[in-house]
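Reproducibility note. Readers wishing to regenerate the assembly model reported in the main text can use the exact inputs given here. Chain order matters: entities are listed in the order in which they were concatenated for prediction.
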Amino acid sequence: MSTEMTDKPTLRTVAAAAGVSIATVSYVLSGHPRSQAISETTARRVRDTASRLGYRRNDAARAIRTGKSDLVLLSLSVLADPWAQAVAAEISAAVTPLGKTALIVADGDWRTVLSNKTPDVIFIDHVADDPELVADLERFAARGVQIVAFSEVLEPRGFDVIRSGAEPRCHLAVEHLLERHTKIGALTSKTEGAPRFDAYRTTMAAGRPADGAGRDLRAAPGGRLPGRAGAPRRAGSADRALLHHGLRGDRGDPGRPPAAPRRTG
DNA sequence: CACGCGGTACAGAGCGCAAA
DNA sequence: TTTGCGCTCTGTACCGCGTG
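Running the prediction on these inputs yields the following structure tokens for the assembly.
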């Protein structure tokens, strides 16, 4: 019994129905430069037949031969982060005109996705300096997958690493606030060993204004600034401004170009 | 281990036509 | 008639993975 009415039409089906070879159908339907060498009569017959049979290209099969999936994977550890949302929007907008699809993984579990898919490009917003994770990335990079990892600690090993560069951005934020303030409060979850806070502290200690005015950075672990005993106060406007810069600037403001990636062969 | 899946890439066959 | 050339299309290897 024939299954032609129920089976999904393939290139082979279309070729048989149109009376041409598989290759001819492939050239016509893919718009391959070589299709210009195929007569308009034949090309039209192929297109009409494909349309009549409801043919749709099998991207998985195509990926086997070309090694291209037209898939761009974006792995975000925290989707609620304004920076992550901005990056997701930018990448989606950038890849769509190229005929590619952005696949966004919101829980940062990019390894599970890569177990059964091979994207053309992978963006990962956070990669721990774990040898096993890095080995996974190196393996995909060796297969020709372009990988961009945002990391403060990872070294480029066949793939790109973007340093968020907390210090320069903290410097900009502090200098901006110092135009109108001499005392700045920082709301931070921890003050020791935190790169972001260290960057603020370094900037504050880096120099003193010519008029001799002092610089004072007060840390507030837990999100509260020190005040009178028993009455912790909320941060003032300058403090909130600094916090704002810290969140947005720390990992790259979408409105500004990111730090240049470093790559090794 | 052999085979099949679907689409692509590429070498080359078949044909028509013009010039010698 | 032979030769050369260009156009159109064909046949098949190849890819990674699952299945028998």
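We highlight two features of this model. Residues 40-53 of chain A form the longest helix (14 residues). The two ends of chain A are 56 Å apart (CA to CA).
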